[in-house]
Amino acid sequence: MAKTAPTNKNILIVAGDPSGDLHAASLIKMLRARDPEISVTCIGGVRMQEVSTHFIYNLVSVGAVGFSEPFKHFFLWLKLIRLVRRYMEEKRPSCVIAVDFYGFNHQVLGLAAHRKIPAFYYISPQVWASRPGRAAEIARLTREIFVIFPFEEALYKKVRGNATFVGHPLLDLMPAPAQKDIPPANGEWKIGILPGSRKAEISRHLPLFVNAFYRIKEQHPGAKAYLFAVPEFPDDRIVPELEKIQKYWSKDIEIVREKDYKVRSQMDFAFTCSGTATLENALLGVPMAVAYKMPRFTYAIAKLVVKTPYISLVNILLKKPAVKELIQENATVDNLAQEAFAFLNNPPRIYAARKELTGLRDMLGRHGAAERAAGRIVSYLS
């Protein structure tokens, strides 16, 4: 890619899912801490909107994921691509930073390359899980790729990509694991419910997780559940879903929104949708059962293209089934409850799992991922 000196300090950053929004917001803070003159224009979510200079659109709230759902938003994506093209031509940003979300960001990177605007990728897509050919395309379109898993650096270098392992940004957000080595009194187990961050995921997983929790209540009446919700779904969108499942949920289930993970770190077990939440739980030392249901069409395609034997980041990193994965027809209330009882009725297993899961911290590099990436980008702008 041809190198051109920046003519301003205006940066365009694009993310499309909640975890990308979270980590992009941290990157923006570090960029502006390094150079207060930097102006950041964003397409992303509410976290990026809070810290950016200009905000174009809340793409995270759309929740397009999988193979078929993005087609439902085709005209919206077309509109946004036109906005991005116009922005690049009129504002000529000094660089573009893509954050995960390959489908849309691939188009953004193409627009930048055509206009000789340097581009960076922070948190590259998981091309090692499916369609590894995308790695070469990302390498071609970017000046530098900031990867968050140690094995990704070599993957991109094989296709002549300029990749730098900066560590995993979750290390800067996670508190130390809670020290819990005795069962709670009176069976007052704390059960986490993490059904996902998108509307479709929540509608598919929430009934399973809530009903599995009430199976636990049958044996352990003192158990309480904590439903961890994302900002994109306020209570008035969550509560109706809960009322469909259980009329008297409010005495047993607490809706939690937090930025510091303090409540989550206290969970004894969690029912978790596959995604970043599985890695968050692991770093906090929370044993879990991982479930994922998707439309049949999406699942059929996924089976053809996914190259990894596991769906959870925990198992992928540990290279073994450290946590139970329940996919499609195996994601049932019975199976979820059975896995929970295997831990709750055998507390030593909980403590052994905590030790194994928190060991992942040593595999993910050092603290300061966003700061290191920001330093590389600012050095370019300077």
Question: Explain this structure to me?
Answer:
The protein is α/β, with parallel strands linked by helices and 382 residues long. The chain has two domains: 10-168 and 365-381, Glycogen Phosphorylase B (Rossmann fold, 3-Layer(aba) Sandwich); 185-363, 3-Layer(aba) Sandwich (Rossmann fold), CATH 3.40.50.2000. The protein has helices at 18-34, 46-51, 69-72, 74-91, 102-114, 134-141, 152-157, 199-219, 235-245, 276-284, 296-305, 313-318, 333-344, 347-358, 369-381; strands at residues 10-15, 39-44, 54-58, 95-99, 119-122, 144-147, 163-165, 190-194, 224-228, 253-256, 269-273, 288-292, 324-327. The strands form two sheets. A seven-stranded parallel sheet has the order 3-2-1-4-5-6-7, sandwiched between helices. It has a six-stranded parallel sheet with strand order 10-9-8-11-12-13, with helices on both faces. Helix 6 links the parallel strand 5 and strand 6. Helix 8 (199-219) packs across helix 13 (333-344). The two termini are 19 Å apart. Residues 1-5 have low confidence and may be disordered.
